[in-house]
Amino acid sequence: MQSPVLTTIAATGFTVAFFHAAIPTHWLPFVLVARARGWGRAKTLAVTALAGLGHVALTSLLGLLIAWGGFQLEEKIAWFSWLAGGLLLAIAAFYFWRQWSGAGICHHHAPGSAHRADAHCGEEKEQSHWQEELKGSPIVSAHSGEWAAISGLFVMLTLSPCELFLPVYLSGVQFGWKGFVVLSAILAAATLASMTLFTWLALLGFERFRLKKFERVESGLLGALFAILGLLILLLDH
Q1: Left (φ > 0), alpha (ψ -120 to 50) or beta: where does 39 sit?
Q2: Do residues 189 and 199 lie in contact, with contact meaning Cβ atoms separated by under 8 Å?
Q3: Cα–Cα dist 152/74, whole Å
Q4: How far apart are CA 116 and CA 57, in angstroms?
Q5: What is the spatial distance between Cα 9 and Cα 137, in angstroms, rounded to a whole number?
Q6: Phi first, then psi: what are they for 168, rounded to 5°?
Q7: Which has the closest alpha carbon to 110: 75, 169, 153, 77?
Q8: Which of 51-60, 155-164, 228-237 has the highest mean pLDDT?
Q9: CA dihedral 166, 61, 107, 93 (to 10 degrees)
Q10: How far apart are CA 84 and CA 119, in angstroms?
Q11: 26, 198 in Cβ contact below 8 A?
Q12: pTM assigned to the model
């Protein structure tokens, strides 16, 4: 077990998970729904954490499948590290392309909303596209109950796993089940910390900053992180 390498992968994974959960799609819906329904801060943060746990649980389950498949391949393919490193670099190239093309990343769309995502999702205003999307969703409607709102937020985030963290699981295959457990713990800690932190800050008025600019560079920064992981795997094998 080369602990410095695992530490590096874990640190990169924390950065990916925390940065991704800081994007308004992971916390702004909770703030907007809370204000529409008159929720207090404690209830809003509790609902945010609950949805975050569902988000983490499904992502970890997918990560488990990736880890198990990786273990099987690692036993049969001598050049598995080159395969994993190459895939990570290909993923990095994909996100660099998205940043260069201006496609951006749009996901976690509100249940029942009439909004349709496209390559320019949310670019029409200096705000997150959620403020437009939630207008047509029953989770903010006064005619729907509290359970409908809470379950809607939970399902929305749970059924949209953090696909950006899955390549991190791939990079940790060489460390066995210990690596999987460490990375799953990192995913949970980073995601929940980021979601609750930015929800709390937004309740205090933090959303007045122009966070749309933060969203626009997400692809490029993620590309850089995956490139670092890919090169690390290749250098370790060499």
Answers
A1: beta
A2: no
A3: 40
A4: 27
A5: 38
A6: -65, -40
A7: 153
A8: 51-60
A9: 10
A10: 29
A11: yes
A12: 0.75
Per the listing, tokens 């509100």 go with 110
Q: pLDDT for 181-237, tens place per residue?
A: 999 999 999 999 999 999 999 888 765 555 556 667 777 777 787 787 777 777 765
Residue 60, token pair as written in the block: 């970890």
CA distance 20 to 9: 16
| Cβ 223 vs Cβ 105: under 8 Å | no
Three-state SS for 78? coil
Pull the structure tokens for residue 103: 């496609």
* Strand (E) or helix (H) holding 230: helix 218-237
CA angle 92, 128, 62 (to 5 degrees): 45
Q: How many CB atoms are located within 10 Å of the residue 86 CB?
A: 14
Task: Please report where in the chains the tokens 């590290």 appear, as a residue.
Answer: 81
Select from 29, 53, 23, 54 the least CA-distant residue to 139: 29
Number of C-alpha atoms within 13 angstroms, CB side, residue 30?
A: 35
125: tokens are 């205003």
What's at 44, amino acid-wise?
T
Distance CA(56)–CA(154), nearest Å, equals 11
pLDDT given for residue 99 in this prediction:
79
CA 4 to chain centre: 25
Both tokens of 202, joined, read 């937004």
Look at the block and give the residue holding tokens 């509790």: 46
Amino acid 124 reads: E
- 3 state SS of 200: helix
